[in-house]
Design brief:
Nuclear Transport Factor 2, Chain: A, 57% helix, 187 residues, alpha+beta, COMM
């Protein structure tokens, strides 16, 4: 990860660290690595989304481990310097600053983080469509519903999951959501 961090400009690295901290503090549902990667590439840096996701996962592990061990800023910086592959100076400065400013908040919320080992629901979109015909069937005319769920996995990476349902399946899906809502209102 140290080699990948070297190519990321300091301002983008600082933004990534901020997003990781905000995710660990449950202020944002996930880290939008696709959007950040596109902006870094636009600035002329050759990095792919997979490498940026690895850096985000490394930072998440670093900050959450430091929070679990209740490390001070100096202890964190010292442990970074003793690693096998040392980080560039600008990265250590950013990590020091971010941890100094917001590290204590993670330590408080880390217990809640340990219980959240599944993805977090971020958004849902749906659309109604009708298949009129195809190469093999001249007249279909059956409506269907396409649902796209946006989910942030425990490391903060956001992904979209799409699926199609018949109208009766969607009605059942909707009924189950209404049941969940009514149960949640009683809590």
């Amino acid at each position: 990860a140290a080699d990948m961090i070297r190519v990321i400009p300091q301002d983008f690295f600082a933004e990534l660290c901020e997003q990781v901290i905000q995710h660990l503090n449950h202020k944002i549902p996930g880290i939008n690595t696709a959007e950040l990667c596109q902006r870094i590439q636009t600035s002329g840096v050759d990095i792919n989304i997979g490498d940026l996701a690895k850096v985000a996962n490394t930072l998440s592990f670093l900050f959450s481990t430091a929070a679990r061990n209740n490390l001070s800023t100096e202890e964190l910086v010292t442990s970074l310097g003793s690693g096998v592959s040392t980080l560039p100076k600008h990265a250590v400065q950013v990590i020091r600053h971010v941890w100094n400013e917001q590290g204590k908040a993670i330590a408080v919320s880390e217990d809640a983080r340990n219980t959240a080992t599944v993805g977090q629901f971020v958004d849902m979109k749906w659309k109604l469509g009708v298949a009129m015909s195809s190469d093999t069937c001249r007249s279909m005319k059956y409506p269907y519903v396409t649902v796209t769920l946006t989910v942030a996995d425990p490391s903060g990476q956001m992904t979209d999951k799409s699926f199609e349902m018949t109208v009766p399946q969607f009605k059942n899906f909707f009924r189950q959501f209404k049941e969940m809502a009514s149960v949640l209102e009683t809590v």
